[in-house]
Amino acid sequence: MERRPYAQPCTQLQFNLRGDAAAGMNLPGLTIEPAAIEAGWTLFDLSLTLEERGADTVAVLEYSVDLLEEKTAALFIEG
Fold it and tell me: How distant, in Å, are the alpha carbons of 23, 31, 38, 78 from that of 47?
C-alpha cells in the first residue's frame, strides 16, 4: 500500500488490544487458534498491538521504515 501524500507522517496509526488469544476458539468440529504472520510490511505508519497471553501481555510494534529508524521506533516502547 502506498503512503497517502495528503496525510502527515505518523498520522496513519493503529492500536489493537486483544484479550486472551491463546485460549483460541472452539466450535463443534472446529478449533481456531491465532497464528503469527510476518508480512514484512505494514499498512500504517505506526501500529501497536497489545495481546494478553495467559498472565503475560505481549507488545508488538510495527512501523514504516520509510519514516522511522529502528532506534526512533524503540523510543515509543521504552518511553
Answer: 24, 28, 13, 15
Secondary structure class of 72 (helix, strand, coil): helix
> Per-residue pLDDT for 38 more than 70?
yes
**Degrees, nearest 5: CA angle 23-74-20:** 10
Angle 1-78-64 (CA atoms, 0-180°, nearest 5)? 10
**CA distance linking residue 46 with residue 51, whole number of Å:** 17
Strand extents, DSSP E, 1-79: 13-20, 25-27, 30-32, 46-53, 56-63
Q: What is the pTM of this model?
A: 0.61
